[in-house]
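Re: the 272-residue chain
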Amino acid sequence: MDDSPQIIAKRAASFGTAAAEYARYRPDYPLAAIRWLLAPLTEAIREPRQQLTLLDLGAGTGKLTAQLAELTIGAGRPRVTAVEPDPEMLAELRRQLPDVTAMPGRAEAIPLAGGSVDAVLAGQSAHWFDLDRAIPEIARVLRPGGVLGAVWNADDSRTDWVAGLHRASGRRTSVPVSGAASDDEEIAGWLGQAGQELFWPAEGSEYDHSQLQTADSMIATLGTHSAFLIMEPEEREAALTEVRNYLAATPQTASGEFRLPMRTLALRAVRR
């Protein structure tokens, strides 16, 4: 797969063309992973009436935002703000979550005051950030002791039929940061040099997850991935047809609903 800067930038900017489908078909995140990301905060709460302020950065259509807004922490529900650069994704987020504060902005230029949030979370988005610029900016808006957390869902290719699905799709759905929870060197280098001065050492954890699918919804989900979104229509149709043929020929997916096994990777670091 072409990973040139031009192609990466094109992929990063592609999601708005499928905002409604993204909201409908992309999975949520395991609640255990979200609570692990926020554990340094919840363990430090001294005042039961304290209300946490959370930022979902690169929020997309609000998949993670919605889960954060439903949490009960400290005084109850946290105050959640969503920041998203793509206007179509942001518009879909506002349609999905009209009661959440949502605004345009980027990880490299966050439209919030310094020291104004307890946690910055990124669901399926931190690999698109320019981390050399984003990490100091994230540190700026975090209070001391605040948490930077990132979470990614990835299909669990340890399962044979899922590995076959990856081959059928040309491995176009791989998450750039995957399997890192067991890779101490990758975790240590996640924040870069600037981040090591601004945050305590990063930690990683992994969780089992799954999503109920059919062949049609699986095809629709794949169609929301950036590698497919930037294809020419004929190329995309050919690639998705190959996946559909694979699903039809595979016993685990050939008849009705099936569960797609996933692994969810979570990384966190605490602001010094």
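The chain has a mean pLDDT of 92.
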